[in-house]
Amino acid sequence: MPPETGDLRIVAPRLNLLNLQLLNLNLSLTPTSMSVITVPLEPISPTRSGQLVVFTGPSGVGKGTLLRSVLPHHPQLHLSVSATTRSPRSGEVDGQHYYFVSRSVFQEWVTTEQLLEWAEYAGNYYGTPRQPVVEQLEQGKTVILEIELEGARQVRQTFPDALQVFILPPSLPTLEQRLRGRSQDSPESILKRLERAKVEIAAAGEFDVQIVNDSLDQAIVALETVLFSPDRRESDQLQDDRLQDDQLQNDQLQNDRGEESQDNPDAL
Asked: What is the spatial distance between Cα 123 and Cα 67, in angstroms, rounded to a whole number?
């Protein structure tokens, strides 16, 4: 992959889970400059229920590089392992990079609803086994799903509270340069990936947070900011507290109405 240089921009069109104004960051969001981000990277405290993070972006944008740079420093993060029907590439280990399964096994998992999401890409099936994700969430882990756009949309339906992060390239020419520089794909495959990237980038506004991967070091800091900001965790906790308060108030209202109906049957 060619060196990633330049500037980074953070765009957050939907801030239901993250309000950048609450992060107390010294950001100067201009098209060509960015100030230094300073944020305390405190570990996420384990709770009864962890946090699901959906991590999406076009092929070649640097998703894997970002995660490989962040994960070793934060053991509370768990990267979900996907299943696929494609053959292993050189150096790939079953259960570590992917679960490599046959099409018949994969189709059985689909039928028995053992997959959190799944999609067909380039003639092969890809999907996320449900049970390992649920187990990690129950242990209070932050589970990251590195998945395609179609899968992210499926997860949004079953896990609406998941934090959805989209990684953008600074431009399509830069993305093309990175795809050609890694020397993994044929020219025809690169063109297909670029066409698909246009569709994926057009859907970036569906996600809670967008990070433009123009500088790898700055993108790492931005991702850690999103994952570890104390203000985000406090905001999530406040949201949970409000939901619990609303439920308690609703239960009390129902109880009051039930007692009133018993005391005054004519009121029904």
From this structure: 26
Give the C-alpha separation, 189 to 224, whole Å. 32
What is the distance between the alpha carbons of residues 185 and 129, in angstroms, rounded to a whole number? 27
148: nearest Cα among 166, 171, 174, 130: 166
Contacts 24+ apart (CB under 8 A), 88-91: none
Interhelix angle 216-228/63-70, rounded to 10 degrees, is: 60
What's the pLDDT tens digit per position in 178-205?
A: 999 888 778 888 999 999 999 999 999 9
Q: Which residues pair with 119 in a beta bridge?
A: 126
pLDDT digits (tens, 9 = 90+) for 68-110: 999 999 999 999 999 999 999 889 999 999 999 999 999 999 9
d(CA 55, CA 52): 10
pTM of the model: 0.68
Q: Vertex 151, ends 216 and 144: CA angle to 5°? A: 45
